[in-house]
């Protein structure tokens, strides 16, 4: 309803039309640096030296093979929730509900593994993956359908549907899927046949990371090599022009949210079958919000999303260890992400101004030439 | 007895939704969505608690909450109105940041207390005679001061918006910014001012949860209530009185959930009751057919360039 008018904003312009990879890299790095600096100022309130905290953070993240491998394990689901936001954003749509799609994907994947523990791995793993994508995709697709059918505000519906998804997951792990002991709101440990094999043994780096990379590749192909992608980007750039060109935007709404939700749902499969091997009530509560930050930092491009997710993965591994070994509270990670996002937005303004100044200078130079 | 409690609680729980929705109506009428509302609710809850705990005065707490709202509003307004950046993305960033800052500074100031720190929340003020009316009396006339203010502010907001010159300027800024600009009024200043006012109201709304009602602060105390206030704005068709009607319905849903959870009656799973307000929001969004959307909502205003 309201998103229709966002086409001309300078942010969506810069976010989806970067002026060169080098300039994007420069401004993204600058935003990350300023974000680290601003969060560092807050650490002074706790009497911590930001330099020391960041030294610890990065030395923790790259301390040994286990921690470096953990960066990839942490980045894998972040790539997928980042893709979920970026993919919809390319069509000018807002999927703010990746957290809920992730949770339903996670709980469906776990239900699948718990119901068919007797199946061999080669059958059970694809089954769980497909189930998680179907659950996330259908839950996300519901938002797209509501937008197409009732002209509902997709931002609001996807946001609200997350709270409903959380309630559904809470109910499932409290009642039908609850562990046999019945002590905590969590499921039993899944059968080993349903675990995603690890890539580096003795670490949490599992093959799911490559599944996430494949998803990023698939998003790229979908966006730039298929008719759906062309239609999506047309709707994202200028909705009324797309309509005049005969593109049925309602179909685009539903397809985009189906795919976007499936990405987030697959993140549930990676976390449950790859890392946790069970579902615990309220785990990974920030995955959806972090995905938005990653998508914005990565310029809503699959490659940018992968790189940003690796950076966030490193910040999470190091940040978690810092907060465990010192009195720096874990909320610093959210603050860091918030600051980085803000600086990215401000850098879009700066880049917009720079582009205009360049264009004006060029025009002036052109005018003086005989 | 149960009905009386339910009604009283519904009127009480609608208070922050009213304040948030009123601010949102005002700001959206000028063409800007206040997408930072959820973060402002949480930061307001934190600032209200902190102010009240340190000074020992609830009024100081409410002032702190409004100030915290204005601080976020200045950032949000500067980026979206003056720098003309994307409202939804900016809102998402500020929501993450504001929530993080509130939680961080609670820890900085109070450490990790074994028991949650508490303040004495607002006390109900009974209106003489009227509060003695059976059933309705306690529900409507034995509330705290903020609830009376919020309910009074809605008709006042309607009057300002539709019956005063200031209201005309607000509405024109959203409907036809070019005309406002031609009349010599700065579109950007009107919008920025509206963002600040709405943010102050949302900060106050957040503080209701911490010091108006519970008397403590917790990280997850808002849980999407800011977004419900945001939704009430357009469910109420950008009209304070429409938002009032919506807030009452949500107040009843909230109150029914709390009453049923504490009563020990187990007809439906608790989780369903918790999800009810959100399901209701989605359902209401779908049921609403005709909207009176401010024409320039969500778009930055740029003067034509020479």
UniProtKB/TrEMBL annotation, chain A:
Primary location recorded for the protein, binned into one broad class: membrane
GO cellular component: plasma membrane
Pfam families reported for this sequence: BPD_transp_2 (PF02653)
Signal peptide residue numbers: none
Key words of the record: Cell membrane, Membrane, Transmembrane, Transmembrane helix
InterPro entries: ABC_transp_permease
Membrane-related topology note: Multi-pass membrane protein
CDD domains: TM_PBP1_transp_TpRbsC_like
GO molecular function annotations of the record: transmembrane transporter activity
Subcellular location as annotated: Cell membrane
Positions of transmembrane segments: 21-46, 66-89, 101-118, 124-146, 155-173, 205-224, 252-272, 292-315, 327-350
Record-linked PANTHER family: ABC TRANSPORTER, PERMEASE PROTEIN, GUANOSINE ABC TRANSPORTER PERMEASE PROTEIN NUPP
Protein name as catalogued: ABC transporter permease
């Amino acid at each position: 309803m309201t998103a229709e008018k966002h086409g001309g904003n300078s942010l969506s312009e810069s976010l989806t039309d970067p002026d060169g990879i080098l300039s994007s890299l420069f401004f993204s790095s600058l935003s990350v640096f300023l974000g680290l600096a601003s969060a560092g100022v807050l650490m002074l309130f706790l009497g911590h030296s930001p330099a020391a905290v960041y030294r610890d953070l990065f030395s923790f993240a790259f301390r040994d093979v286990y921690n470096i491998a953990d960066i990839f394990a942490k980045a894998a689901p972040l790539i997928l929730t980042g893709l979920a936001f970026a993919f919809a954003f390319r069509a000018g749509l807002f999927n703010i509900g990746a957290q809920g799609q992730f949770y339903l994907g996670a709980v469906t994947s776990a239900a699948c593994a718990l119901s068919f523990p007797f199946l061999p791995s080669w059958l059970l793993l694809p089954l769980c993956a497909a189930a998680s994508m179907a659950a996330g995709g259908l839950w996300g697709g519901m938002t797209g359908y509501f937008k197409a059918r009732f002209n509902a505000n997709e931002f609001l519906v996807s946001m609200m549907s997350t709270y409903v998804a959380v309630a559904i997951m809470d109910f499932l792990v409290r009642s039908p899927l609850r562990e046999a002991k019945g002590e905590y709101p969590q499921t039993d440990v899944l059968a080993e046949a349903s675990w995603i094999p690890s890539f580096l043994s003795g670490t949490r780096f599992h093959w799911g990371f490559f599944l996430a990379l494949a998803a990023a590749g698939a998003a790229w192909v979908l966006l730039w090599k298929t008719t759906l992608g062309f239609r999506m980007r047309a709707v994202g750039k200028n909705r009324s022009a797309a309509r005049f060109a005969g593109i049925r935007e309602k179909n685009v709404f539903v397809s985009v949210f189906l795919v976007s939700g499936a990405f987030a749902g697959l993140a549930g499969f990676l976390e449950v079958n790859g890392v946790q091997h069970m579902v615990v009530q309220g785990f990974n509560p920030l995955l959806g919000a972090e995905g938005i930050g990653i998508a914005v930092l990565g310029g809503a491009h699959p490659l940018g999303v992968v790189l940003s997710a690796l950076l966030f993965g490193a910040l999470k591994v190091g940040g978690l260890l810092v907060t465990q070994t010192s009195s720096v509270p874990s909320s610093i990670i959210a603050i860091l992400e918030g600051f980085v996002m803000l600086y990215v937005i401000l850098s879009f303004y700066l880049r917009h101004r720079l582009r205009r100044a360049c264009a004006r200078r060029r025009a002036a130079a052109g005018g003086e030439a005989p | 007895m149960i009905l009386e409690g339910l009604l009283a609680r519904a009127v009480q729980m609608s208070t922050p939704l009213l304040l948030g929705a009123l601010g949102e109506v005002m700001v959206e009428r000028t063409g800007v969505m206040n997408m930072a509302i959820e973060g402002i609710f949480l930061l307001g809850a934190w600032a209200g608690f902190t102010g009240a705990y340190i000074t020992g005065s609830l009024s100081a707490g409410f002032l702190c909450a409004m100030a915290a709202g204005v601080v976020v509003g200045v950032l949000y307004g500067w980026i979206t109105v003056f720098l003309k950046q994307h409202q939804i993305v900016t809102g998402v960033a500020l929501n993450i940041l504001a929530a993080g800052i509130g939680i961080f500074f609670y820890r900085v100031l109070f450490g990790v207390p074994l028991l949650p720190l508490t303040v004495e929340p607002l006390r109900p003020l009974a209106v003489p005679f009227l509060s003695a009316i059976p059933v309705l009396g306690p529900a409507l006339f034995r509330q705290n001061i903020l609830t009376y203010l919020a309910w009074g502010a809605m008709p006042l907001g309607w009057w300002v918006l539709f019956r005063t010159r200031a209201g005309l300027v607000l509405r024109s800024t959203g409907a036809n910014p070019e005309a406002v600009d031609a009349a010599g009024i700065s579109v950007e200043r009107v919008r920025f001012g509206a963002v600040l006012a709405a943010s102050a109201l949302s900060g106050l709304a957040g503080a209701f949860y911490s010091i108006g009602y519970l008397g403590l602060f917790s990280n997850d105390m808002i849980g999407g209530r800011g977004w419900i206030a945001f939704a009430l704005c357009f469910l109420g068709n950008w009209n304070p009185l429409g938002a009032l009607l919506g807030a009452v319905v949500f107040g009843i849903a909230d109150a029914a959930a709390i009453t049923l959870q504490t009563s020990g009656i187990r007809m439906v799973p608790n989780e369903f009751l918790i999800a009810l307000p959100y399901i209701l929001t989605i359902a209401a969004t779908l049921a609403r057919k005709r909207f009176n959307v401010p024409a320039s909502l969500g778009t930055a205003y740029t003067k034509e360039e020479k």
